[in-house]
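Sanity check

After download, print the first record. It should look like this:
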Amino acid sequence: MNTVNGTAAAAVGRLSFRPLDPLRDAELLHRWVTHPKAAYWMMQEARLVDVERAYREIAADEHHHALLGLHDGEPAFLMEYYDPRHRELVGLYEPRPGDVGMHFLVAPTERPVHGFTRAVIAAVMARLFEDPAAARVVVEPDVSNKAVHALNEAVGFVPEREIQKPEKRALLSFCTREQFASATGVTA
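Expected structure tokens:
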């Protein structure tokens, strides 16, 4: 995969990013986050207004950001990144300079593409590491989400320990720029 300015050319097609528009994208996101395959996103019961509100809050937050991921120009995944010194993990671990937290969600589809989710997480990681200040990506998926643990490992994440967040028991894991490059061959 080659990455240039946030666009990844992968075997599955072209992956790129654009800023998420909480109003324009709310209906699309609502379909994604309430789908049964998005159970770990924890918005199954959200109404459209709830999704719109949640992403308006992210858009207004200097420590939390959301991007819409595109596959060959069409919306296909969601990427969120945050400063763990101020969001999500405050008081749950000792952040280092250059730490950035990340979440991603692949849209449900009737026609899955083999290797797509792995290409998405690699593109998300490459996008994060385009920022020279990003030294290490932090994730905290639900301990029971074995599929995402395998994806995380495939791109270089190393689990550190389980932590208790208010909404879930999570597996705190880290991936440095070097671990990502070693696992994927992608440099950002």
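If your output differs, re-run the checksum step. Summary of this record's structure: Confidence is low (pLDDT under 50) at residues 1-9.
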